[in-house]
Design a protein that fits this description.
The chain is mostly helical. The chain has one domain (2-60). The protein has 2 helices and no strands. α1 runs antiparallel to α2. The relative contact order is 0.17. The model has no long low-confidence stretch (mean pLDDT 92).
């Protein structure tokens, strides 16, 4: 159960990170620079949390 939770959380968190990258790219291309920069900052925080969660997963199993 716990391993499935880790895998599902990692999968969906990376999916959200990729979605943030796509949305920030198109926001900048459409002229919404401030929104694009905010999304990039959120994406960087998401990547940091994903790597921390992945290290925790490796330590657990």
């Amino acid at each position: 159960m716990e391993k499935t939770f880790f895998i599902a959380t990692l999968f969906f968190s990376w999916f959200i990170t990729i979605s943030l990258a796509v949305f920030s790219y198109f926001a900048i291309q459409l002229g919404y620079t401030f929104i694009g920069i905010c999304l990039i900052v959120i994406m960087i925080a998401s990547i940091a949390m994903n790597t921390v969660f992945r290290k925790k997963w490796k330590r657990t199993f």
